[in-house]
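Quick illustration, no need to memorize.
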Amino acid sequence: MPASPEEFRSALSQFASGVTVVTTRDANGKRHGITVSSFCSVSLQPPMVLICIEKTTGSHYAFGESGAFVVNILASSQSNVSEHFASRLEEKFGEVKHTLNEDGVPVLTDAIATLRCTLRHSLDGGDHSIFVGLVESVNARGGEPLIYFDHDYHQIKT
C-alpha cells in the first residue's frame, strides 16, 4: 500500500531544498511566475534541468504553450519574493524588479542565478507535470541561497 499524502508530505519536509521562481509567458504574451522547489539538474551534456508544476496551478498551461522558461534561483534575502510568487495574485510582476529576455520571459533582477531554458519534454507526473528544459544560457552572480526545510525558510550559516 502506498504512503498516504500526509505521510509523504511529512517525510519530504525533511529534505532541504533551494527555492526558485520559475517564469514563462503564455501564447498571448502574459507573464507567469510561480515558486518551485521541485527543480534539479538532469544532464550536463547537453545541459538540462527539470521542474515539476502542479497541474491545478493557474500558470500550468503557460509552460507548455510557451516552449521557454527561466529558473530564477532565489537569494537568502528573498523569502518575500518566494511568498509573492506562491500567492494566487493575478498580476505578480508589478512590484518585482525584472527584465524580459529574448524569449519575452521575465528574469528576476535580484536572483543569485538564472537559467534560460527551452522546453524539450513534458511528462506526466501524477498530479504534476514534469517539464524538462535545455539550458540555453546561465547567469550566476553568486550569493547565499534561500533554503526551504521543515515548512519554513532557512539560511546557510557560514
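Residues 15-155 form a domain with the Pnp Oxidase; Chain A fold (CATH 2.30.110.10).
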